[in-house]
Amino acid sequence: MPVTDRERELLKRTFIDFRQTSELLENPLIFEKANGLYCWDTEGRRYFDAIGGVFVAVLGHCPGCVIEAMRHQMERMTLAPPLHGIADVTLDLVEKLGSVTPGSLNFVKAFSGGSESIEAAMKFARQYFRQSGHPTKYKFVSSYLSYHGATFAAMAAGGGSARKAPFEPQMGGFLKVPSPIQLRDQFPSWEECCRFTAQLFENVIVNEGQETVAGVIVEPICNTGGMVTPTAEYFTLLREICSRHNVLLIFDEVLTGFAKTGDMFAAQTFDVVPDMICAGKALSSGMIPVGAMMAREDMGEAFIGPADEGLQFAHGHTYAGNPLACAAGIAVVDEIVKKKLHLKARRIGEYLRRKLQQLQKLGVVREVRGRGVLLGVELVRDSERNEMWPADKKLGNALKKTALKHGLIMRIDADWFSVCPPLVVEEADIDEMYDRIEQSLKDALEIVQR
Fold this sequence. Notes:
Elements: H1 5-12, H2 21-26, E1 31-35, E2 38-41, E3 46-49, H3 52-56, H4 64-74, H5 88-98, E4 107-111, H6 114-130, E5 139-143, H7 152-157, E6 174-177, H8 180-183, H9 190-208, E7 213-218, H10 232-244, E8 248-252, H11 266-269, E9 276-279, E10 291-295, H12 323-339, H13 341-357, E11 365-371, E12 374-379, H14 395-405, E13 408-409, E14 411-413, E15 416-419, H15 427-448
Parallel strand pairs: 3-13, 5-6, 5-7, 7-8, 8-9
Antiparallel strand pairs: 1-2, 2-3, 4-10, 9-10, 11-12, 12-15, 14-15
Helix pairs in contact: 4-12, 5-12, 9-10, 13-15, 14-15
């Protein structure tokens, strides 16, 4: 799209997440408004937002129920003194989230987003063990290819090198095992591969010494690895391993949380109760930054005692539990529960999966994976031999350009793309989205095959 000299100059004075500014300036994109399933740029061109911003707008852009809840809260209170007390609506969010979490994950603290929630969970885990008789438990084990946030500890827990390399050296106390997707071709089945990689977590815990390991942190579905979706057994094994070694199982559900996978949380989809869940993104459907850390209720007891013992959680943020954000979060959860949108995610997700599987006719799709509406498509050069594209001819790199040409916003990597349409989507909308995907992929193939 064309931009003014002013806009071009301003683009040079900021940055776009994980994007090179010079590349953006070749084809600038400046959004002006959004509603429902669509965004519009400043030229008035409409884009089908197949990922709800960035896996956020679970109710679509600018949902009326959330706007109304925020408007009502704005007339009452938008900031409570965080060192002195707590807003009534913040307590309401604590109660609301506790009513939809699995097990006894009723100890809740709201934050301003996913990274804050992850960071808080790891600090909470370390202090919890320090105050419950295990002061040497401080390490965390996670998977390569994972992404847990952009703050330093969250980044250290993440497993992708590209987003960490510029900031080396990383914080200590973070250990990794391979993602199942990295080892799958070494096993006769995905199930066997997942069993093996789950066991690697126990190997690390045992070799490090269980009294040094505080937690295992995993994404139920790993987007940055290409929507990697382990088996339910994988998570059952992790639960057993963590319980056996007194290690906390932490689910990073910043991506998967709030109905997308067919349940309120992916923990319920995979039928596993972790010790902690971290959430963000969809909790406000993109209306305001908000996240949450949810832990077993009994864990909170380790932080209660005489004031002079200093047992309180030594952590806080100015906007943690912000009343306006909490009002938005309550409205989102209420809407999901009232309209049973988790069930819609299952139904419409099956329709979406069948549509995406039709792309296999192009001969460049190895697999469609994910749960509910949170789905990914792996791209290969030859689907019969699962041959990868060469580094200088990655299909995904071409797809990034052709998708925008066809007015389509997706999460696209060199060898895969993913979608997660807001739960206001219907089958006719899926058909429109699919048509744009198919044409974009065909155009991308023409580019790389020249």
